[in-house]
Design a protein that fits this description.
By secondary structure, the chain is α/β, with parallel strands linked by helices. Helices cover 35% and strands 18% of the residues. 38% of the residues are buried.
């Protein structure tokens, strides 16, 4: 049966193309949603961009007829702007009629009572869904962009190794794969004594590669577990231009990426610059506007990157000396002056072309699909992009474990020769941090 979908502004701001994803059903946009889009359109962030995009699309649909009367979409459905159904008496007593959410609920409830077809309110706002359910409105999340990550065990391939295979791996560093493998697959080589050798599938899926821990050592950082070995191999492989590191806090995602970036930028000189960026999504209550120049405003959000850089750049001899902090700060400032290091917020990425750089995007789980696409399309010739994120620690109000950018990246790019992915699970920051991540 054809359905009537009442679409909330949170859905349109999340995906400006959402109106084309409801097949041959009727899509109703309450007039108050247009007012919310009007208020958001001047914002300089991605929300403002999404508001402007959906307004442009609605303006284009006016060519097919008045939106209040309904216009036919290419998907076969009908879209219309609802001007009526705003009688407030249908909602419980003492509700606030000035709130946009309550006005959307009023439209939805009136349509539910009048329509013979099912009426469903679609919203990304969890509180809105709870309120809708309380007053008897069918409601659901926007499912079109939901992608479930497969179990970790399904991404790891196990291959038994004979004595001849082991000998070739130790002397040549590679063998032919006994079976076709996905490109850049994480492989556990099982020896006769049941011990495990960390192997990596080749970009064409026909070979298996092995590097000892000594060869994987990067900027004096040695992998501490098999997952970090896989990650270090992908990070140090220039032919893999997009690496996705997924895992909880303390598994070494950012540290390994920075170590590899410093090594390949300063020592190997494969890349001309190390670019580090993070989205501005504060954890907990925001502290408001920050004083100072741009560098002073950005520093609190980038402090995790600075912490890892200080660990990597601190001289071993001077770890206990008082002047070691000033030496590290001087080293970071020198790298910035020589244009070998750039630490930036993602707000300023749009419109740039970034060639021949090692680009690290930290906290990538807080990015939408559109934002991930915007970042990757900035990459010029010779650029490598590393995404680090934990889908279980999302601070974005309208993203979840199944709708964030790195989940979509995993689903859509898996199997491409230029893409590699590692799911890290073992915490290596400290014993205390590992217990906290597991038990709390």
């Amino acid at each position: 049966m054809q359905k009537v979908y009442v679409v909330d502004s949170s859905v349109l701001l999340h995906d400006p193309n959402a109106i084309y994803e409801f097949e041959d059903n009727e899509i109703v946009i309450p007039f108050v949603v247009l007012e919310e889009l009007e208020r958001k359109k001047r914002a300089a962030d991605n929300v403002g961009m999404a508001a402007r995009e959906i307004i442009r699309q609605l303006d284009g649909l006016r060519q097919a007829g008045p939106l209040a009367g309904g216009v036919r979409l290419k998907s076969g459905g009908v879209l219309r702007i609802e001007l009526n159904h705003s009688s407030p008496e249908v909602l419980p007593l003492f509700y606030d009629p000035s709130l946009a959410d309550n006005r959307i609920l009023t439209v939805s409830l009136n349509l539910t009572r009048e329509e013979k077809r099912p009426v469903i309110l679609v919203t990304k706002d969890i509180a809105m869904r709870v309120k809708a359910d309380a007053v008897g409105i069918k409601t659901q999340d926007y499912y079109n962009d939901k992608v479930a990550l497969p179990p970790i065990g399904d991404e790891i391939i196990t291959v038994p190794l004979g004595d001849g295979d082991v000998d070739s791996l130790y002397h040549l560093g590679k063998i032919f794969a006994p079976v076709p493998l996905p490109p850049n697959a994480c492989v556990k080589g099982i020896l006769a004594d049941q011990s495990i050798l960390p192997l990596m599938g080749s970009s064409n899926g026909h070979g298996l590669h092995y590097h000892s821990l000594g060869k994987l050592s990067t900027w004096d950082i040695i992998p501490k577990n098999i997952e970090q070995s896989w990650a270090m191999y992908l990070l140090n492989n220039p032919s893999v231009s997009l690496v996705n590191l997924i895992g909880p806090a303390g598994t070494g995602k950012t540290l390994l990426a920075l170590a590899s970036g410093l090594q390949q930028t300063l020592h190997s000189e494969i890349y001309s610059r190390l670019l580090c960026a993070r989205p501005i999504v504060p954890f907990g209550k925001d502290i408001g506007f920050l004083p100072g120049e741009k560098e002073d405003k950005v520093r609190p959000y980038m402090q995790p990157i600075y912490d890892n850089l200080e660990l990597l750049l601190r001289p071993k001899k001077d770890k206990s000396e008082k002047n070691s902090d000033s030496m590290v700060d001087s080293a970071i400032d020198l790298l910035k002056k020589k244009h070998q290091l750039e630490i930036e917020i993602l707000t300023y990425i749009r419109g740039r072309s970034i060639p021949n750089q090692f680009m690290i995007i930290d906290e990538a789980q807080n990015l939408s699909v559109h934002e991930i696409k915007t970042i990757i399309t900035r990459a010029g010739e010779g650029t490598k992009i590393v995404l680090c994120g934990d889908p279980d620690q999302i601070d974005h109000p309208y993203l979840d474990k199944e709708s964030n950018g790195i989940a979509h990246l995993t689903h859509r790019l898996k199997g491409k020769p230029f893409y590699g992915q590692v799911r890290l699970t073992k915490g290596e920051r400290s014993e205390l941090a590992s217990f906290a991540a597991e038990l709390l």
